[in-house]
Amino acid sequence: MRFTVLMTAPKLAPKGVKKLIDAGCKIIYVNDSTDPQAILSILSTEPVDAVISRTMTLTGEAIRACPTLKVITKHGVGVSNIDVDAATERNIPVLVTPGTNSQSVAELALGLMLAAARRIASYDRDLRTGNWSRAGNGQQLSGRTLGLVGFGQIGQTLAQFCIALGMKVVAYDPMLKVSPIEQVTLINDLPALLRQSQVLSLHCPLVHATRNLINEEALSLLPDGAILVNTARGPLIDENALVAALQSGKLAGAGLDTFVNEPLPLSDAIASQPTVVMTPHVGGSTPDALDAMAAHAADNVINFLNGKPLSPSLCVNHLIK
Question: Which is the catalytic residue, given 203, 233, 239, 296?
């Protein structure tokens, strides 16, 4: 049977495209990813069987507008842009592709950490304006403590990198009872972890309980001169509190790949902070990771539509038995 798959972006990596085409699927792309109504327009008029969701918001209205829709898969793992409740109401499973971008995201987190610690972007800007500054005001990471909020595959990969650098690593993850890495100590109290985190890196999902998790109170618990890294989701951080902590010197810097408002407006206060290193939500956007995510998402769609068994661990709304 020929199935129709909606990709909520202008393209899909080659491995995913090949799998869908080989399975006889028709692929529809959202060509304008800046148009919030584009997905609704397609789902209201096309007999879509499956959606592969990237970063655009998939609303309940759009989900309910398509009577033929049978399955949604995230191109990644974060489903905060998908109305999971609306999908559940229609008995539509929402699937994820865990582990496919862990290496790429962890590598970017390390890069942001190093860039913030050693003021790399600042020195680069200085050199390009003819300022040969050798202030030497960066931080050496060896000997410092890295605190991880969330200790899944990305956090574990980053931990291994930082252990190799000579850092002490501690982690907070309510889902874990035993640390999967012997050298990493699990701490079951977030404030206790914050108090010793000279570098704090976020790797937890965005849910109601984690929105603004890193707020003014949380930032006040960090050691003076700490560095904050976020490659997870922007709304985990109260950005007003973050700006205040940077301006006061409480934080020495931050490395951010995700923001509350994306694309980040030039007028946003974060964009004017000289000690912030920023990337445009590209943690998982390497050719290797994109191919792996696309292939896994395609497999999710093809296998479900063809009645093949899927692991319940792939389904965030637990509709796979």
Answer: 233
